[in-house]
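A common beginner's mistake is to predict each chain separately and then try to dock the pieces by hand. The better habit, illustrated here, is to supply every component at once so that their relative placement is modeled jointly.
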Amino acid sequence: MSKQKILEIKDLYKSFSSGFLGKKTKILKGISLEVNKGEIFGYLGPNGAGKTSTLKCILGLIFPDKGNIKVFGFDHLSIKAKQKIGFLPENPYFYDYLTSSEFLHFYSQLFQKQKTADIDALLKLVGLEENKDIQLRKFSKGMLQRLALAQTLLNDPELVLLDEPLGGLDPIGRKEIRDIILKLKEERKTVFLSSHILQDIEMICDRVAILVNGEVINQGRLEDLVSQEILFTEMTVSQINRKELENFGKTLTHYGNKSLIKIYDQNKVQEILQFINEKKGKVHSLVPRTQTLEDIFIGMVKQK
Amino acid sequence: MKIRAVASNTFKEAIRDRVLYLLLFFAVISLISSRILALLTVGDKIKIIMDVGLASISLFGVLMAILMGTGLVYKEIDKKTIYTLLSKPINRLQFLLGKFFGLMATLFIMLVFMSLIFIIIFLLYSGQITWKFFVSLGFVFLELCLITSVALLFSCFSTPILSSIFSLSFYVIGHLSWGLETLIKKMKPGITKFLTQAVYALLPDLENFNFKSEVVHNLAIPPKIFLFSFLYGIIYTFFILVLAMLVFRRRDFI
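With all components supplied together, the output reads:
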């Protein structure tokens, strides 16, 4: 059975004119990608790669020079498509003279179906129920981010576009937002997540596209991109002489009687374990390090 | 529905803006001073109060329209609130119209408020207010519609300071352009007259909305002029709103 395509971008080009002579800078250079129903799609790239520009093209905030964007099979600018989209911008700014409750009421009127009944529940979901009558000018950055998430979910969207959703949040806020994204996945919603924080993408995304200088240089399932091959093993050992450990690998730190050793040759891992056993030493930790998205990403960006 | 939602939000924004109350404060001072001015003048004091009063209402209405109108779209772009708003199922025309009607509602309330204060001052001093006073106010409102649409147009592509200068220039030119009409009448036929006529046709003539003399001196308002001024205001405002839409339609929000 073929997967239902929720978002299709074909050959997207965008450039901006700048300066007095109107010199053109190419931002997007032929982006093509597809996002299927129910998946969390990570859109990964360094700052200035064109992630936000792609999102703005999808939402009709900027107009592409060339290319085609379809959302739910409709043209991306159609009202029908926008009825089903939720968007969280990178640095959310809202009307600071409104209270959070007034703000959500205002946005809810822009959708066909009245959602006013859900507003209290939404505010509760993002932890703002106590602050619903406070003007947004008095909100902290974290509170604004939560409210931004509430407005994203206002229309119970089928496709959620998130632009750097975890940037600028404290660890608790990040975890809460990650949980909400995973809850969306459970509800079979489709999430398009742009980020330069690899950890976020690695933790929650099914498929990723890597964007560098306005071009998608790689895309696919996370497990296909990241090799499972072990690169090296890190081991913390005590009660063994440091010099004896160096026969197996490189000792990184030595504190008290504990040593951290990095072993590149996997055959030597068994040998060192046997050696430690014989010498009545103690193993505190043993961590095999496989390739991460970060390794691939840095490799690709450098190559580019 | 969507236009109403944006209009209602624009109304809330304007009503919670301190600039509005500052202008309103000065408008009230100016209205009160019309009575003081009458005390210092030789002649028909009632006419002075009416003249200064109507001029104050009109001037402060225009200042409100320009100072708030020039920020209408610019602020949304500058503060990036437009990103989330336009990502919702609303098209750009609905957004612009919502902004326009929101400010018009605010100006209407302000006009009513200033007029009430003026009526109280006027009734305390003399007595009678004629229907022509309300007609004159109606045309002040029509002029505000036009000025707001101009401020909105400039707001779509320029900063509030520049937009204010442009809109104020439009207002000043609009009230001086009738001089060209007099000039045309005195000119001999030829290319110069034709060009002057073309310039006059292009420039706004806001004196069409000025019925102060008719109210102050209790002159008759011919229905033809009344109808012409009304249609002139509506069509000109519509034309400027279409221009604003054309500018705004394909604008990138970087």
